[in-house]
Amino acid sequence: MPAKNKDLHGSAPDKSDTVLLLIDVINDLAFPEADGMLPEARAMAKRLLELKKRARRAGIPAVYVNDNFGKWKSDFRRTIEHCLAPKSKGRDIVEILRPDDDDYFVLKPKHSGFFSSTLETLLKYLGAERLILTGIAGNFCVLFTANDAYMRDYELLIPEDCCVSNTPEENAAALELMRKFLKADTRASSKLKLRQRKQRRT
Predict the structure, then answer these.
(1) I need a labelling partner for 126 at 20 to 30 A (CA). Which of 38, 105, 177, 202 fits?
(2) What DSSP line would sit under 17-79, residue for residue?
(3) What sign has the CA pseudo-torsion 132, 178, 164, 79?
């Protein structure tokens, strides 16, 4: 890393070998299958919030990796506002998982968090070697991001209770694929031992 730009001009001051990714949790859930997903998504959001709190205590940074929902003139704050609108099906989930001021975010145009985004650059500056992948949907954006992360030699943790898909069956199938082919650790979030070897900068 060039000495003159160790922290992306102050935009990435943390250093951690482990990073938590929250994928598409800022979501208006504007698709036909959302109604069936909602109860499990709300429960998932509460578990993910607890995981995020534990990660914070361990000094592990959180990165929101999110679709822009086709709103190419919007930024992340406007995406949050859009998903908090009264008619948004995802409003409850966004209320639970609203980002903190010191969280990172990356807007992505397609399924994978790595495709045509700044995620890879950010992770390099953070010093990430291990990724905890969570979010919506397990069988689409989480799976595609996990696949690209695996090809980049990241160690993967994908807690089975912190991602949700259109149906429980589809979620289970995606988790099995990630376990088998991407060598992902899919144990429940409560069983994860959160640690980092590289200290956060103050």
Answers:
(1) 177
(2) SEEEEEES-S----STTHHHHHHHHHHHHHHHHHHHHHHHHTT--EEEEEE-TT-TT--HHHH
(3) positive
CB 38 within 8 A of CB 29: yes
Residues 6+ apart with CB under 8 A from 70: none
Question: Nearest-5° angle of CA 9, CA 156, CA 96?
Answer: 70
Q: How many CA atoms lie within 13 Å of 108's alpha carbon, on the beta-carbon side?
A: 24
Residues making up the chain, counted from first to last: 202
Q: What is the pTM of this model?
A: 0.90
The residue to which tokens 């940074």 are assigned: 61
86 Cβ neighbours under 8 A, 6+ residues apart: none
Distance between CA atoms of 71 and 113, rounded to whole angstroms?
A: 17
Residue 72, burial from CB neighbour count under 10 angstroms (0-12, 13-18, 19+) = exposed
- Cβ proximity of 1 and 125 under 8 Å: yes
Residue ranges and CATH numbers for the domains of the chain are: 19-191 (3.40.50.850)
Note the pLDDT tens digit of each residue in 81-137. 888 999 999 999 999 999 999 999 999 988 999 998 999 999 999 999 999 999 999
Residue 118 near residue 153 (C-beta atoms within 8 A)? no
pLDDT by residue (tens digit) across 123-179? 999 999 999 999 999 999 999 999 999 999 999 999 999 999 999 999 999 999 999
SS3 (DSSP) at 121: helix
